[in-house]
């Protein structure tokens, strides 16, 4: 990740040691001096400048998003304040106190001593696990695992330091989940004690998000919109192929998973009550060539 904010000792030579050269650079606006002992490059983002000005760090879900992880909601920025801060009330911001670093893998510096304005990936994941519900922690953990930004041993150590009440859900973690939508649906199915296989490879179909029981396929949209019309055509062709091979399927939209979750859970429960998913798939006879359907 490119660095835009610096401590004095992190500035390039001679600015880090020569006060005269530093003042010249400040006068030319090559860099900008910010509160709380930060210096900003011209391309520093408004979010980074806001954090430095308030004496915060960018952390938790926002830092996880900056590190490329899948997070459920990144609309409001998450900041880290010092551990002994009094009540912090900033509208539009989500403020967490810095963790103490004694039962975590990350250093979790207090903002006044941190070398970077954006928390490290490990620190961000630990903050999400600590400050949010277990499902959100599981989503971010699995995103880091899927992208190989955390290894399984590190993920398990983070889980071991989490609050005890969260650990049963966090221990559901897998490395192959492709999105937070998939993680949310799979974790819900596991809470119902339903057999579910993530990223199952099915002959004649290919890889599917979730195989429930023996014959129910669930596909989950990871974003609010399909990026290309071709994706829709491919989805419909796969739907036809799955039906031909005797599978039942549910295709859940991003809206269903994230904005209408209560109704979606009831929908899934109703489908499961039919017990059709426990039966093996029964292919249609005769079948047809889905590649010639004009999809």
Automatic annotation (TrEMBL):
It holds the Pfam family DUF559. Residues 214-272 form the DUF559 domain. It comes from the Bacteria. This is DUF559 domain-containing protein.
């Amino acid at each position: 990740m490119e660095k835009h904010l610096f401590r004095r000792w992190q500035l390039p030579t001679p600015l880090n040691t020569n006060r005269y050269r530093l003042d010249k650079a400040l006068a030319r606006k090559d860099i900008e001096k910010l509160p709380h002992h930060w210096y900003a490059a011209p391309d520093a983002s408004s979010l980074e400048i806001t954090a430095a000005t308030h004496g915060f760090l960018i952390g938790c879900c926002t830092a996880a998003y900056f590190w490329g992880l899948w997070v459920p909601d990144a609309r409001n920025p998450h900041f880290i304040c010092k551990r002994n801060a009094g009540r912090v009330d900033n509208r539009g911001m989500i403020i967490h106190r810095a963790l103490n670093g004694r039962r975590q893998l990350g250093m979790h510096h207090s903002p006044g001593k941190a070398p970077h304005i954006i928390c490290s990936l490990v620190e961000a994941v630990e903050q999400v696990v600590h400050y949010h519900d277990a499902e959100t922690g599981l989503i971010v953990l699995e995103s880091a695992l899927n992208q190989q930004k955390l290894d399984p041993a590190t993920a398990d150590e983070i889980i071991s330091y989490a609050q005890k009440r969260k650990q049963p859900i966090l221990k559901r973690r897998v490395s192959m989940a492709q999105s937070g939508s998939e993680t949310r649906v799979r974790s819900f199915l596991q809470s119902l004690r339903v057999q579910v296989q993530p990223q199952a490879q099915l002959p004649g179909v290919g890889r599917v998000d979730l195989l429930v029981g023996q014959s129910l396929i669930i596909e989950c949209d990871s974003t609010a919109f399909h990026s290309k019309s071709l994706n829709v055509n491919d989805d419909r062709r796969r739907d036809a192929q799955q039906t031909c091979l005797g599978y039942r399927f549910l295709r859940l939209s991003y809206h269903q998973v994230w904005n209408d979750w209560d109704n979606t859970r009831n929908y899934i429960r109703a489908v499961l009550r039919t017990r059709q998913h426990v039966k093996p798939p029964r292919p249609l006879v005769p079948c047809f060539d889905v590649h010639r359907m004009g999809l």
